[in-house]
Amino acid sequence: MKTWKKYLAMAFFLCVISVCMLPVRAKENMQLMDQAGLLSEAEAEEINARLTELETRTGWEFMALTTDDAGGKDATSFVESWFDNYTAKDDGVICAIDMDNREIVVRAFGEAMYYITDMRAEKILDAGYEEISGEKYAAALQEMLQEVENSYQDENAGQNHLYDEDTGEIIKYPARKSITLSEILIALGLAVAAGGVTVLGIFGKYRQKFGGYQYPIEKNGCVHLTVKEDRLVNSFVTKRHIPKPQSSTGRSGGGSRSTVHTGSGGRRSSGGSRKF
User: What's the domain count of the chain?
Assistant: First the structure.
């Protein structure tokens, strides 16, 4: 009986572990979903590896999707809903091939919106369109992901801004939290208090009073002076013309715009789509 109870307990334990692991496995599988069956097993593995690489590098969530049934939704709405339903982070990018609506789509969320500007979205769609026109579906997703990475490398997100087409609102890149004056004064007060405690501790240890001991510097000190001369032999002046900076986008420019809207899930996103 003891043996049977032991086996039953082990079986119950294994069942609990399996059930707990189901959500994790489901989430991992959602990184790439090939609903339309456009990818071979090898192509899917390569895209999954690419998605993981980009997630590690950016800290965002990356997804790729193919579908042949958008459930009556337009391509953009379907892709936005998919990302909302299966993402665990606020920041991320999804690239998709919608065979139902015959569109390729890229949508960026959270911080990624400041990198996937209107101009960058067009470049991403250009890269995907060139490949999908030849029915190279895996290559289309890979090229789109490569352009997303280029956006992350080249764009200066702090100079870019969002334009909400639903409200007309202009949203600048969130400023990093700075130290306030009150925080500086509090830190300074704590530092002075800590230093005072240290000094008082030293005086207390050696039992000295303020002004009770003076070092005879006139008696014990000495100064040696030496003379050194520097002579100027030659001098040269070089003049160089510095051209005025030209306005541009990216890291060297004055910033770009990302047109965003709020999807059915209540989150803003930037990006675009293109028929093929």
Answer: 1
Q: Are 105 and 95 in contact (CB under 8 A)?
A: yes
Residue 248, in any domain of the structure: no
User: Which residues span the domain enclosing 166?
Assistant: 32-175+255-275
Residue 158 has pLDDT above 70, yes or no: yes
Classify residue 42: in a domain, yes or no.
yes
Angle between helices 137-154 and 118-132 (to 10 degrees): 160
The region, left, alpha or beta by phi > 0 then psi within -120 to 50, assigned to residue 207 is left
- Encode pLDDT of 94-153 as tens digits: 999 999 999 999 999 999 999 999 999 999 999 999 999 999 999 999 999 999 999 999
Question: Is 105 part of a structural domain of the chain?
Answer: yes
Bridge partners of 106, per DSSP, are 95, 272
- For the segment 155-161, the average pLDDT, to the nearest whole number, is 95
Residue 188 near residue 133 (C-beta atoms within 8 A): no
pTM more than 0.85: no
Residue 87 CA to residue 95 CA, distance in Å, equals: 13
Over residues 61-87, the pLDDT tens digits come to 999 999 999 999 999 999 999 999 998
- Distance of alpha carbon 128 from alpha carbon 254, whole angstroms: 28
What token pair was written down for 39?
């990818």
Structure tokens belonging to residue 114: 């400041």
What is the DSSP-derived secondary structure letter of residue 60?
S
User: What whole-number distance in Å separates Cα of residue 76 and Cα of residue 84?
Assistant: 12
Radius of gyration, CA atoms only, the chain: 32
157 domain residue, yes or no: yes
User: Tens of pLDDT along 262-272?
Assistant: 998 889 999 99
